[in-house]
Target: J domain-containing protein
Amino acid sequence: YKVCQKKVGMLCVCGIKEINEAYEMLSDENERKWYDANREQLLSENKKKPSNTTKHEEEEEFDIIPYLWPWAFNTFDQTIFTKSLQKDCYVCVDDEKVYNATFMKIAELEGHETKQIPRFGNSALSYLFVQKLYYFWEGFGSICDFDVKGISNADVDHLKSLARNEWEQNVIRLVAFVKRRDPRLRKYAHEMAAKPLQANNLQQIRNDQMLQRQKEKAE
Model:
C-alpha cells in the first residue's frame, strides 16, 4: 500500500509539474514563439533519448534542442539525487542527463578548461555564486570553427557565420530557460520583494509605538 501510495503521489507531482511547465512556456512570449517554431523537432526528439550514443558521435554533433524543452528535466528536488549526482543540480529525465553536465559539454566543445567553468551547484550555493554563474554564461560567444561540408568555397564563410549565430543563440536561450526556472533565483527575488514590505511594517510599528507613548504622556 505504501509503495502504491508513493507512486500515485509521484504521478500527481509529475502531472502538476507538466501543467506548471506548460503555463510557464505559454506565459512567456519568447519561449512560446520559440516552441511554436520548433514544435515538430521537439516532439520528434521527445520520442528518443536526448543524447548521443557514443563518445565519437558526441564529438561530431551535440544536439542542444532537447534541453530547451521544459520536460527535459524531471525536478529540481535534490532529495532524489543518486550518489553520483549529489553535487549537481537540475536532474533530467535520465539520471545521467544533468544541466550541469550539459553546460560542461558545451564548454568542452568550445575548448574551455572545465575546471575554470562555474558549476551549477545545489540549493546551498550562495546568490553571489549563482549570479556569477549566469553572468558567465549570458555572455557566451562561440569560438568554434564550424565545418560546412559539400558547399562551394564562396558560401562557406556565410554558412559558418549562420551556424555560429544559431549555436550562440541556442546556448544563450538555454541559459535564459534554466535561469527563469532556477528556484534559487526565485527564492532570492521573493526575499528581496519581501524586504520593503517588512521595512514598511517595521516602520509602521515604530510609528504606532511613538503615537502610543505620546498619547500616554498627554494623559
